[in-house]
Design brief:
It comes from Streptomyces lividans TK24. This protein is of the alpha+beta class. It is built from six helices and ten strands, in the order αββββααββββααββα.
């Protein structure tokens, strides 16, 4: 079992990292993804989003299975009966069965299932590692190759009530940090960004952010960061004069 776990972890580590953060109006998904067709983030149901790192063909099979589960449950019972917790339990059973089976290799995937609530207190984020365990996350979560370092960076800087631009700026900063501590620039065209926006009037809250809207948010976040830095510098200089 230890060998199977190590095999799965190495496979996941070869993939690019992604982050999921809460902000004032919902949940944002951010990842480095040069492909425009193979998505890391997807809509599962009205208020539920899906994110995955690892082997694309394996997590795509899981995504399709999740959509089928959600559609069937919503049709058989009620749309409100489709929850992130229920979906996470289904994924946990599937991943756990595959991981413990000697007949096939373990899946090289790590999943995040998120549901946006009517208020930030009702948001739900679940992380599912390769072995099928479920981790209830709050505020922010990172999965993929450099997840541990990125999670530490986010834990120190993420706060409640951030705007979308601020959350996006923090996510890109976290993803830009290499294992040796240096930073690199990730252009907008290499980013995949999506949100679960609780303020959307329609029932479906999932939306992709691309093109001009993404560029404007990145510029807005950079401008806000620069203004904050200038304010701190003025405060420091003022205290020195005193």
């Amino acid at each position: 079992m230890a060998d199977r776990a190590e095999y799965a972890r190495k496979g996941i580590a070869r993939g690019r990292s992604l982050v999921v953060l809460q902000y004032a109006d919902g949940i944002v998904f951010v990842g480095e993804n040069p492909s425009r067709a193979l998505h890391k983030f997807s809509e599962i149901y009205d208020r539920i989003g899906f994110a995955a790192a690892g082997k694309y063909n394996e997590y795509e099979n899981l995504r399709i299975g999740g959509v089928r589960y959600a559609d069937l449950r919503g049709y058989t019972y009620d749309r409100d009966d489709v929850t992130a917790r229920g979906l996470a339990n289904v994924y946990a059973q599937t991943l756990g069965t595959i991981f413990s089976s000697q007949a096939e290799k373990p899946y090289e995937v790590e999943l995040v299932v998120a549901e946006v609530g009517d208020s930030p207190e009702n948001d739900q984020i679940y992380r599912l590692p390769h072995d099928g365990s479920i981790v209830d996350e709050h505020g922010s979560v990172a999965v993929g190759g450099n997840a541990e370092q990125i999670s530490g960076y986010l834990d120190q800087r993420h706060r409640d009530g951030m705007t979308l631009a601020e959350a996006l700026k923090l996510a890109v900063q976290a993803l830009s940090r290499d294992t040796n501590g240096t930073e690199r620039e990730i252009p907008a065209e290499r980013l995949e960004v999506a949100v679960l926006d609780r303020t959307r009037p329609q029932q479906r809250k999932f939306k992709r952010i691309v093109g001009g809207q993404l560029s404007r948010l990145l510029e807005s976040g950079a401008a806000a960061g620069a203004a904050s830095a200038d304010g701190e510098a003025e405060t420091d200089s003022g205290s020195d004069e005193e």
